[in-house]
Amino acid sequence: MKTSASDILVELTIQDMLELKEKYAKVNHAHYVHTMIDLAIKWRQKYGNERITITSPKNSWKTDGSIVILLDAEVTGIFPYSLGTYENVRQGLLETKRIPKEYLYFANIHENYEDIIEEVVEKMNKKIYKKHENFLYEMSIDEAKALEIKCPPGTYIKKLTKEHVGRINDLWPHKYENSDKAIAVYIEYNGGYGLFSKDNELMSWALQGPLGHINLLQTEEKYKGKGYGSIMVQAMAKKIAEDGYIPVATVIVHNTPSVNLFNKLGFKIIAKSYFLEIISFDMYKSLE
Question: Which residue intervals define the domain N-acetyltransferase in the entry (predicted)?
Answer without folding.
Answer: 155-288
